[in-house]
Amino acid sequence: MTSFSKAASLLLLGVSYVSARGAPISSAFVNGGSRSFRHSVVRNAGEKLPIVGGEDIMSEKVHGTSEKPVMKELKWGCDYATADRICNFNRHYAEHAGYWQTTEYLKQVDRAEPTKYFDAVTGNHLFTAPVGRDMEAYLKESNSHGWPSFRDEEVNWDYVRCLPNGECVSITGTHLGHNLPDGTGNRYCINLVCVAGQPAEGQE
After folding, report:
1. End-to-end CA, the chain
2. Which of 61, 99, 127, 164 could disulfide-link to 95, CB 3.0 to 4.6 Å?
3. Which helix (H) or strand (E) holds 37?
4. How many Å apart are CA 157 and CA 170, to the nearest integer?
5. d(CA 123, CA 197)
6. 30-49 burial, b if ≥16 CB within 10 A, otherwise e?
């Protein structure tokens, strides 16, 4: 099985498996002045994307793969327990397909201007969408795949990395989703609960 199909298969298993376990998945661990989004894109314009990180990013820390739990007040009515499991005690699984459509996201998201998405643990700015397309195209693609789907130009590479197996993570250890490329390029299939954070100071 190719690494792409393996990542896709794991992602589509859904959060129900994680919820059923109800406990941290210890086997998932491997032991061991802000800039604007525009600046980040320009800085990385000549780099090969995605920017690859090492397994050490996801080493076991104080709270799973992170130093602390997800924040209590998540955007769009996202569920705290689900977010904490997916972000901090998980390397392969996801919120169930279409979960993002069951939240308040579609009612509250700005349809006129791009929206910034923040790490549910740290509040760091991770994604901005839509960029290089309109909101209709972004929502159509996300709907067709079952999860919010971002493209290279919508990623803030100051805080996001992809591991060699396609797992998409924050530089502080938050699991975000997977890179599942298609015919038009990299496509970052991201759990809404992982990017439903409130902005940290200076990240707005």
Report:
1. 41
2. 99
3. helix 37-43
4. 9
5. 5
6. eeeebeebeebbeebeeeeb
Please state whether beta strands 160-162 and 167-170 pair in parallel, antiparallel, or not at all (unpaired). Answer: antiparallel
Structure tokens at 123: 């509040």
Helical (H) or strand (E) element with 139:
helix 135-145
Q: What is the dihedral of CA 148, 65, 155, 42, to 10 degrees?
A: 180
C-alpha to C-alpha distances, 115 to 28, 159, 171, nearest whole angstrom: 31, 17, 21
At a CB cut-off of 8 Å and minimum separation 6, what does 138 contact?
A: 129, 130, 149
The model's pTM is 0.80
Contact 147, 177 (CB under 8 A): yes
From first to last of its 204 residues, the chain has per-residue pLDDT tens of 444 444 444 444 443 333 333 333 333 333 333 344 444 444 455 679 999 999 999 999 999 999 999 999 999 999 999 999 999 999 999 999 999 999 999 999 999 999 999 999 999 999 999 999 999 999 999 999 999 999 999 999 999 999 999 999 999 999 999 999 999 999 999 999 999 999 999 998
108 is written with which tokens? 């509250």
Residue 145 token pair: 């795949």
